């Protein structure tokens, strides 16, 4: 099989990675990922109701996704504060990354339209 065909399904992910790298949003995203793991550790250590680090990561996922499954819940003030900070950070990161990607694509479209207009002259 041709290597281009093998890579085609991942082309969109490569484009997204390139956009994040070119704009510096990759650092924001990676700091968020690190914050999630650190927050999960604090939650695991601070809340006796959360029995494993995996449960703490699952809890962080439910907080980020705003699903709030209810199978793992915050019972201490520290855990609730960590949850609040995680929610705020997740909202900001999602907004920033979305804005960066949309703006990048808009710039590409404007550049293409400008080139097309110059080519017609």
Q: Could you give the topology of this structure?
A:
Layout: H1 3-7, H2 11-23, H3 25-46, H4 53-64, H5 77-120
Helix pairs in contact: 2-5, 3-4, 3-5
What can you see in these coordinates?
This protein is mostly helical and 121 residues long. The chain has a single domain, classed as Helix Hairpins, CATH 1.10.287. 79% of the residues lie in helices and 0% in strands. It is built from 5 helices and no strands. Helix 3 crosses helix 4 and helix 3 runs antiparallel to helix 5. The longest helix is centred in the last third of the chain and has 44 residues. The protein starts with a helix and ends with a helix.
Give short descriptive properties of this protein:
121 residues, mainly alpha, Helix Hairpins
**Share of helical residues:** over 70%
Strand content: under 5%
As residue ranges, the low-confidence spans are: none
Secondary structure category: mainly alpha
**What is the CATH first-level class name?**
Mainly Alpha
The tally of helices reads 5
Q: Give the N-to-C terminal Cα separation.
A: 43 Å
| CATH fold label | Helix Hairpins
**Number of individual domains:** 1
- What would you say the CATH architecture is? Orthogonal Bundle
Q: Report on the biggest sheet.
A: none
SSE series: HHHHH
Count of beta strands: 0
* Average of pLDDT: 86
Rg calculated over all Cα atoms: 20 Å
Query: What's the quaternary structure here?
Result: single chain
What sort of overall outline do the alpha carbons produce when their principal axes are compared? elongated
């Amino acid at each position: 099989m041709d290597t281009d065909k093998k890579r085609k399904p991942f082309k969109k992910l490569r484009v997204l990675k390139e956009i994040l790298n070119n704009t510096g949003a990759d650092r924001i995203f990676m700091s968020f990922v690190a914050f999630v793991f650190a927050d999960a550790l604090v939650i695991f250590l601070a809340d006796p109701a959360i029995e494993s680090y995996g449960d703490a990561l699952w809890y962080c996922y439910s907080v980020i996704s705003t699903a709030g499954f209810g199978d793992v819940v915050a019972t201490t003030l520290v855990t609730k504060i960590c949850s609040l900070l995680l929610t705020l950070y997740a909202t900001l990161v999602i907004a920033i990354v979305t804005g960066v990607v949309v703006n990048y694509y808009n710039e590409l479209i404007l550049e293409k339209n400008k080139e097309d207009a110059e080519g017609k002259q």
